[in-house]
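seq:
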Amino acid sequence: MRLAGRTAYGLALGLILALALVWGCAKRVTPPPGPSGRVPPTQRPYTIKGRTYHPLSHTRGFQEVGLASWYGPGFHGRKTANGEVYDQNAMTAAHKTLPMNTWVEVTNLDNGRKVRVRINDRGPFVDGRVIDLSRAAAARLGIIGPGTARVRLVALGYRQQGPAGAPTGFVQPASYRTGTFTVQVGAFVNESNAWRLAARLRPKWGRVFVKRFDRGDKVFYRVRVGRLHRLEAARALQRRLRAAGFRRAFAVAW
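struct:
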């Protein structure tokens, strides 16, 4: 993992939306990784060498020009930022802010060669460099010898798959930042405790809900405030609730 040994992730909590894209009964889209109801670690802000990076919530219209570099033997077999084992012979790459599993078309502006790679890592953390390619991808672009090349990146989206896993194209992911959100203030095994907290919150915070959640081994009653349609609004409400003394409040999916 290229972030190992470096100070990293911010504490922002939020939501990863499930992709709601239907392209025929035989087709499917590989969604971004991460546990339901949370922004995955690879989508949270992180800091390297004193600079903070904010991963993009979507890839629509993304293009970038800069230097491509590559990494190989020294990282082969080690963990990437998304938890995979790095394979220098696979068509993958590292990018500082694109969502994991995004496919990108990379064009070498010196010779016109093109490759398509999947983002599964973070980097390169060198000024001017926009992507770190696997050895296989770098070889196809003709940059193994020189080490770097000026390239253009065009984000394609997530790979869409048909029967037997055959790729059929690319689709843009839904944004991580739109949908339906709320802020969870507490969770109780005792239902009456949940309703008492809800009654305490309602006069000041308005819409307060108690939602039953069966974890399998135990049932919880979650107390939640608000129903919002943007992640930023939910996080703003989270900040206000924490400032009011509810230190464990956090934004979640509705």
